[in-house]
Design goal:
Length: 253
């Protein structure tokens, strides 16, 4: 085949790819998905899940809570929920579960998804739940001004043991510190008591005890899926996590 023929074939293939319409979300599905990250990380960790959901026709928004207090973080999440053009499936990882427990009361939210996340009841906080059923990790320590960090030397093992070393090294060096005000902020009106909830237990979680995850999700009656993965299961097992989110988005109500 000549170089010209090869170039023409490549161009036609590219044009056909560009012309292929994006997949639409299933009929009747909640198309707006709002993702909330947890402590010590930022929203970029949701990229793989977001890419899957977007390819499947969902409109994805990723919240960047400041982690300065639970009230601030709920307000930041509501700010993004309010920008959506219709009903929302609200998803939280880790401490993000405490956030969506409050922000889930927003009238636009129709379902909640907890991904290896805290799911507090009235008067409970992420910290109190963690003290009640301690995790395997003991690598979290406060700074003098009241913010929590994970010891970088232990970050990979305790947060994301199933991710590549170059990824966990960057995560350890770019931590978003969590304030004690966020960690100790208590739930007042848990949205999971009035709205459908789905949950993922990360079976190899060292940051939140998997047995705590199971007990919280059993208490709430959440539809629960267990996935073999670390606390960063949303990064290491994005297809499985996206499938649970889509389950919440397509459920009949």
């Amino acid at each position: 085949m000549s170089k010209l023929s090869t170039l023409m074939t490549t161009a036609l293939s590219l044009a056909a790819f560009i012309a292929t319409p994006a997949m639409a979300a299933p009929s009747g599905a909640i198309k707006n998905i709002v993702l909330v990250h947890g402590a010590f990380v930022d929203g970029s960790g949701w990229k793989a899940v977001s890419d899957i959901l977007t390819a499947d026709g969902y409109a994805v928004t990723i919240v960047q809570p400041p982690e300065t207090s639970l009230d601030d973080d709920i307000a930041a999440t509501n700010r993004m929920i309010d920008r959506q053009d219709g009903p929302v499936v609200l998803v939280g990882h880790s401490y993000g579960g405490a956030i969506i427990t409050g922000a889930g009361n927003n009238a636009k939210v129709t379902a909640l998804v907890y991904v290896a996340a805290f799911q507090p009841d009235v008067g409970e906080s992420a910290r109190s739940l963690g003290l009640k059923t301690p995790p395997a990790s003991n690598a979290v320590a406060p700074s003098p001004d009241g913010f929590l960090f994970i010891d970088p030397a232990k970050f990979a093992d305790d947060f994301a043991a199933d991710l590549p070393a170059d990824v966990t090294d960057l995560m350890a060096r770019s931590q978003v510190p969590m304030s004690l005000k966020s960690a100790t902020g208590v739930a007042t009106a848990p949205a999971w008591k009035t709205k459908p909830s789905y949950a993922i237990v990360a079976t190899q979680d060292r940051a939140i005890n998997p047995d705590l995850e199971r007990s919280m999700y059993k208490r709430s009656g959440s539809i629960t899926t267990e996935i073999v993965g670390s606390h960063a299961v949303y990064m290491s097992q994005p297809k499985a996590v996206a499938a649970v989110i889509e389950q919440a988005a397509t459920a009949r109500r």
